[in-house]
Design brief:
By secondary structure, the protein is an alpha+beta fold. It folds into 3 domains: 159 residues, no CATH class; 226 residues, Immunoglobulin-like; 144 residues, 2-Layer Sandwich (Heat Shock Protein 90), CATH 3.30.565. Helix content is 38%, strand content 21%. It contains 13 helices and 23 strands. Strands 1, 2, 3, 4, 5, 6, 7, 8, 9, 10, 11 and 12 form a 12-stranded mixed β-sheet that branches. A hairpin with a 7-residue loop joins strand 13 and strand 14. Helix 6 crosses helix 7, helix 7 packs across helix 8 and helix 12 packs antiparallel against helix 13. The radius of gyration is 54 Å and the shape is elongated.
């Protein structure tokens, strides 16, 4: 390959480098996204296995608890069965119903209490040992005032608090009415009240003359001494208190079935058909409205059941529980399908194809729970596909980030291709021709580009710029020499003018001489321009002595001495002090009035109007004449701008309004022009002087 061909390829080096870099950057972003997805899939799968094992341990721990064993021994048999008063099988052989602490701990640990409103609760159960007796146990709480006891010998039971118990099973119905009878030895009310419920077979009427208590019916009640509403004087107030009761209900049908067969079936196969209703009646007639507590009251909250384990399962997971030796599962639960987040089909297929170790192995865990009535096998199965679904949803949600990165890379490439690479190519072609015409000698100490010379695009560009900068350096040097010459000229002019002005000031030195004022203004103008490279620079760098000035008197003096015909001044009746410098302010009005006089219609007046506000004073100069073009109304305040052809030849340099705006700004004021219906107004604003 010849040297010319190598040089030609070198001129494309930067363009090839730019495009290859962006292509590799886009591929790197895609590779990074795929690698992150694969790693997250492996992490998610491992995390899912760990989570499923923890879920299994949590389920097993709950089932090994007495509340869980209660749920195992009483699998779901329909909605609301426990709430309707169906007895449950306890994980205990029997309940020591005579001891408050033991029976309370037993029902609370087993979790068999059904919760009602107004501090009510109830647990109806049987023991898991048939030889403990064919009894139904009931324990719970209710809230009431102080318990009214049944007086011994009173044949009417309606005057005391009492329980009404109804048991329905196998076509039979048993009803008992148990009034409250206190035990001897009760102390102060604040310590609580203990007593028993003595059971009688319920009669149609209210007279229980000659009725004898049911011997096997046992009932106890303990009323706390603390008021539920937090009353301070608990010993004296008749507030609502919480009572805990425990019952043992004799059911002859159950006891007879125990001795009818050699090996009785326990629990009874028709246990879910049993119904127990317990009511707590207040003193008074047995009416519906008098019930303090009723187990058939709607809205009761059932205890924990196996169906409650569904909340621990994720979508796709299943839980099966089977009793040892049984042919079917007692319960099968599946995780509820929540509203799945939308996912991209393309991302879903990509994630499904990413390889993950042990992904195809089944995800399931098994365990065994021992209960007094047998063992139960728990099998928890997971769904590894949920890992793909969850990861696909998350990846879809954040895919905009990868898309935004790729879009940013594409936009950056497009911007550099159009704005840089294309311009470099154009500059390369043009600089090659330009560098052939630059042969001037000279060095560039500050802008030396010799180290960037080369054969690629940047080198060619640097070579051309190096040559061009040398030419610019020469032009700048010539401009500096010219500016110095102009400055020397201004020095000479200022020196020659200041001497005659000083002589004139000596001739007109009196303060009452009108010429004295104008000579001082001429001296100030010369001082401002003296020593400056240009007039605009001189005006911009001038300093003013701002002090309090009576603007009303100043305007009247301007109107009297301006030498302009038909100049009307209004609003100057009262003094109005402002912050300004007298001589520059007089120059401002001189320049503006000169322009107003030049452009007004012959025979029309020029109006000076003074207005004031709390903080500012405003002077409006209005003339009748042509309006200013809207696109020219701001440019008239720029240096050197004039609407007159060959203005410089007639002595108009376009600096009067520039000087006016510059001086007003240095005095903290503003000046602007606006078109009126019949002419133009210049508005000057100054700050009012205080104190």
């Amino acid at each position: 390959m010849t040297q010319a061909a190598l040089d030609w390829l070198a001129s494309f080096r930067l363009r090839i480098l730019f495009r290859s870099s962006f292509l590799l950057l886009a591929l790197a972003v895609l590779a990074m996204a795929v690698a992150v997805l694969q790693e997250e899939k492996q992490r998610s799968y491992d995390s899912y296995q760990t989570h499923l094992a923890k879920t299994k341990e949590q389920i097993v721990a709950r089932l090994r608890h007495p509340a869980g064993q209660l749920a195992l021994l009483n699998p779901p048999r329909g909605n609301g069965a426990a709430v309707a008063g169906r007895p449950v099988v306890l994980p205990y052989s029997a309940i020591d119903f005579d001891d408050q602490s033991k029976v309370r701990n037993a029902v609370e640990m087993a979790g068999c209490l059904v919760q009602y409103r107004r501090h009510g609760s109830l647990c109806v159960a049987i023991g898991n040992n048939p030889w403990a007796g064919g009894y139904i146990y009931a324990a719970g709480t209710f809230a009431s005032g102080a318990l009214v006891p049944h007086l011994i010998g009173d044949e009417l039971l309606a005057g005391a608090h009492r329980l009404r118990v109804t048991v329905s099973l196998r076509g039979q119905t048993h009803r008992w009415l148990a009034p409250f009878e206190p035990l001897p030895g009760n102390g102060a009310r604040a310590e609580g009240v203990r007593g028993r419920f003595t059971g009688y077979v319920e009669r149609e009427g209210t007279n229980y003359k000659g009725a004898r208590p049911v011997r096997e019916f046992r009932g106890w009640v303990w009323q706390g001494g603390r008021c539920l509403d937090g009353a301070e004087d608990e010993a004296e107030s008749d507030c609502a208190r919480k009572s805990f009761f425990s019952l043992r209900l004799p059911v002859d049908a159950l006891r007879e079935a125990l001795f009818r067969e050699k090996k009785p079936q326990w629990p009874p196969p028709d246990l879910d058909q049993f119904r127990v209703r317990i009511e707590v009646l207040a003193p008074g007639p047995a009416t519906t409205g008098a019930a303090i507590f009723d187990s058939d009251e709607p809205g009761a909250v059932p205890p924990f059941s196996l169906k409650d384990l569904t909340g621990l399962l994720l979508p796709g997971e299943t839980l099966a529980i089977r009793k040892a030796g049984a042919a079917a599962d007692i319960v099968q639960l599946s995780g509820k399908e929540d509203g799945a987040e939308p996912s991209s089909p393309l991302i879903t297929r990509l994630i499904s194809r990413l390889p993950v170790a042990s992904y195809d192995a089944p995800v399931e865990f098994a365990d065994e729970i021992a209960t007094p009535l047998g063992s139960y096998r728990v099998l928890l199965k997971g769904d590894a596909r949920s890992v793909n679904r969850g990861l696909a949803a998350v990846a879809t949600r954040v895919s905009w980030f990868v898309g935004a990165m790729l879009l940013a890379i594409a936009l950056a490439w497009l911007v550099m291709e159009i704005g840089i690479v294309r311009r470099i190519a154009l500059l390369t072609r043009r600089t090659r021709g330009l560098s052939q015409t630059v042969h001037a000698d000279g060095g560039l100490e500050r802008f030396d580009l010799a180290d960037l010379r080369g054969g690629d695009e940047l080198g060619i560009l640097a070579t051309g710029l190096d040559d061009l900068l040398r030419r610019v350096k020469e032009d700048a040097e010539r401009e500096r020499i010219r500016a110095g010459q102009e400055k020397d000229m201004w020095h000479a002019v200022g020196h020659e003018i200041m001497s005659p002005l000083q002589s004139l000031l000596a001739l007109h030195g009196g303060s009452d001489d009108p010429s004295h004022r104008y000579i001082q203004r001429m001296q100030q103008a010369v001082r401002i321009l003296y020593g400056s490279a240009s007039p605009s620079e001189a005006f911009a760098s001038s300093s003013l002595s701002v002090q309090a000035l009576d603007l009303a008197g100043f305007l009247q003096n301007v109107a009297d001495n301006a030498g302009i015909a038909d100049l009307v001044c209004t609003g100057v009746e009262a003094p109005l002090p402002v912050r300004a410098d007298e001589y520059p302010l007089e120059d401002v009005f001189a320049h503006i009035l000169k322009n107003a006089d030049r452009y007004r219609k012959p025979g029309t007046p020029i109006t000076l109007r003074l207005d004031s506000s709390e903080n500012t004073a405003t002077v409006s100069i209005h003339n009748h004449g042509p309006r200013i073009a809207e696109d020219f109304i701001e440019r008239i305040f720029e240096y050197g701008v004039s609407d007159q052809a060959e203005a410089g030849a007639h002595g108009n340099r376009g600096q009067g309004l520039f000087v006016a705006r510059t001086y007003m700004a240095k005095m903290g004021g503003t000046v602007s022009a606006r078109n009126e219906d019949d002419g133009v107004s210049f508005v000057l604003t100054l700050q009012r002087a205080r104190g």
